[in-house]
Amino acid sequence: MEAFPQRLRALLDERHATGLYRQCLTLESAQGPLVRLDGRDYLNFCSNDYLGLAAHPRIVASLREAATTWGVGSGASHLVCGHSAPHRELEEALAEFTGRPRALLFSSGYAANTGVLQALLKPGDTVLQDRLNHASLLDGGLHSGARFRRFAHNDCDALARRLAQAEGPTLVAVDGVFSMDGDSAPLEELARLCSEQEAWLMVDDAHGFGVLGANGAGSVAAAGLNETQVPILMATLGKALGTSGAFIAGSELLIEALIQSTRNYIYTTAMPPAIAAASVTALAVLREEAWRRDHLGDLITLFRAGAKALGLPLMASTSAIQPLLVGDAGQAMLLSQRLREQGLLISAIRPPTVAAGTSRLRITLSAAHDSAQVERLLATLGDLWPHA
Ligand SMILES: *Cc1c(COP(=O)(O)O)cnc(C)c1O
């Protein structure tokens, strides 16, 4: 059987030849504004730890304490005997925080998105998705059996046309904040269109949850949309919240039905209870340390003003995700490498994560940064950028 090895070698050869070969970095430190790599400290501008909670002392202490009481592994899936008091407490806290009747935990955002779409959708339904949605939403829609259509990014007219042609029960799914562009979905307009056409709206708020909205409850709260307007709200715990896992929030009916039918919920081990306990603590820190959101907002303003003055190719984002558009994948890699030599860690995002010709440096800011670090980022970009 040479077929599989041959295929695998061809894949690797192709990735090398097109400059799209990918590799993991191995960090030698915790997440933070500085991370250690090959014995050297780098300023980190590529994590999704937007509020600097991934290594927050109170959250770390909570994890440690919970492990003493609850152990490490959950031991089973939720429906067998893996669901413990910390899971329940976290689900209740998330429901309250998002203003939804119920919330359901998943071990990852990828599992939550693919799981809910496959559980809800049937052949004969239609699912409409923004072209730039996260891969987990796209994969869930593609494998759901429903008619799957994409619409142009943030284009409500394009969506309205798709909705007019849609057959059967229809679901519209979007990212609240787009992961590689950093811009936001026009949620109020999308909710209006969906309600006119009696379609359901699902929002993946992986990058808005914890950061946007008056108390950090996310994009949907910031847009003032209730559970009727956004029946399916999904968010992850591994980004701004600094822990791990994800949840779906919605009605009693939705959550009860998902518990019965979502394969990614039923046939998988529950997240460690100590992670659930640490996530409850992270929600409390989110409420009590509102300065983190304010400080992040100040750093975003500082970065955008500085980058504009330098003539850098900013994108239309007001979020913590501030990509600089490069275009060519090789050029993006080269810039990332040069920045690395100067002690800055910024990843080049290339196809297939983004469309061909739109490779970029994905810069992310965090409340853990200080303004001097952002100034250093700007000065280095100014020195290195080809035409700046
Ligand atoms: C990160 C991300 C996910 C996946 O969440 P994980 O918990 O990392 O699996 C889903 N959707 C969006 C928009 C994301 O950015």
TrEMBL record:
Cofactor dependency: pyridoxal 5'-phosphate
Top-level taxon of the source organism: Bacteria
Every Aminotransferase class I/classII large domain range: 41-380
Keyword match DNA repair: no
GO biological process: biotin biosynthetic process
First-tier enzyme category under EC: transferase
Reaction(s) catalysed by this chain's protein: 6-carboxyhexanoyl-[ACP] + L-alanine + H(+) = (8S)-8-amino-7-oxononanoate + holo-[ACP] + CO2
Residues at which substrate binds: R22, H134, T353
Residues spanning the signal sequence: none
CDD domains linked: KBL_like
Keyword Glycosyltransferase: no
MF term (GO), any: 8-amino-7-oxononanoate synthase activity
InterPro entries: Aminotrans_II_pyridoxalP_BS (IPR001917), Aminotransferase_I/II_large (IPR004839), AON_synthase_class-II (IPR050087), AONS_Archaea/Proteobacteria (IPR004723), AONS_Proteobacteria (IPR022834), PyrdxlP-dep_Trfase (IPR015424), PyrdxlP-dep_Trfase_major (IPR015421), PyrdxlP-dep_Trfase_small (IPR015422)
The enzyme's E.C. designation: 2.3.1.47
Keyword annotations from UniProtKB, A to Z: Biotin biosynthesis, Pyridoxal phosphate, Transferase
Coiled coil regions, renumbered to chain: none
Protein family membership: Belongs to the class-II pyridoxal-phosphate-dependent aminotransferase family. BioF subfamily.
Role: Catalyzes the decarboxylative condensation of pimeloyl-[acyl-carrier protein] and L-alanine to produce 8-amino-7-oxononanoate (AON), [acyl-carrier protein], and carbon dioxide.
Protein's name in the database: 8-amino-7-oxononanoate synthase
Species in which this protein is naturally found: Kineobactrum sediminis
Organism phylogeny: Bacteria, Pseudomonadati, Pseudomonadota, Gammaproteobacteria, Cellvibrionales
Gene name tied to this protein: bioF
